[in-house]
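pinned: reference chain
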Amino acid sequence: MAANYVLVERGNPGNPKAPKKFYAQAKSSGELTLRKLSKEIAEGSTTVSDTDVLAVLNDLTKVLKRHLDNGEIVRFGDFGTFQVAFTSDGAETTDKFHPSLIKKPKVAFRPGIDLKEMLATLKYEKAK
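pinned: its structure tokens
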């Protein structure tokens, strides 16, 4: 399977007079909902229903949120790691720094071994 991309023309924000260039941008081919994911997982098992899997995945989301909110790194084995990350504006001294300088909070995901291997062998195809 190949990762689809489209070409997007963009200017250089550091040099607005520079000629624009074309850059690849990933294009999804659909989405997988939590409900569909739970059904697919349940189909691979004879012992749990899709309702059971959905309940576990819903609780997983709640637990993940709680632990990230507590500042913890959440490791999901070979799947990968979740962690809160952000950037900030600078201050001249530590005394002048204030939390209002913190910007762009996000949940950072670092893939585990299986996903890293998939990315290393990924093929690319221009979207139609």
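why pinned: Strands lie at 2-10, 21-26, 74-75, 80-88, 102-111, 123-126. The CA atoms of residues 79 and 115 lie 7 Å apart.
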